[in-house]
Amino acid sequence: MADMGLRVIPQQPIETGRRIYFADLYLPELKAVIEIDGGYHFTEDQRRCDKNRSGGIWRLGYHVLRLTNKDARSEASIKAKLSRLKR
User: How far is the C-alpha of 80 from the C-alpha of 73, rounded, in Å?
Assistant: First the structure.
């Protein structure tokens, strides 16, 4: 993402008022949070938790992008998802 001119901050704390979440990656220029979801994120309980987490972060005005482990390894996938965000 550095080749796109974006600064990346790992494990950025984000306080929603009720909780503090640590974003996997934070891109301040886009006010975007990237969450990388491993296999356990696809269970029903974890999907519900992830939806609540994304919603709380989104309500603060952040873009929330969720990537699978596979997508996170693909520079093309990352660039395609980021290109949808307005700078």
Answer: 13
Helix, strand, coil % in the chain, rounded to nearest 5: 40, 30, 30
Q: With residue 36 as reference, give the H or E element that holds it.
A: strand 32-37
* pTM for this entry: 0.80
Interval 5-34: pLDDT, tens: 889 999 999 998 888 999 999 999 999 999
pLDDT in tens, 34-53: 999 876 656 778 788 878 88
Rg (CA), the chain: 13
Q: Which amino acid is at 15?
A: E
* Cβ atoms 67, 84 nearer than 8 A: no
Tally Cβ neighbours within 10 Å of residue 66. Answer: 18
Task: For residue 81, give every residue at least 6 positions away whose Cβ sits within 8 Å of its Cβ, in sequence order, or none.
Answer: 65, 67, 71
- Determine the Cα–Cα distance for residues 86 and 83; give it in Å rounded to an integer: 7
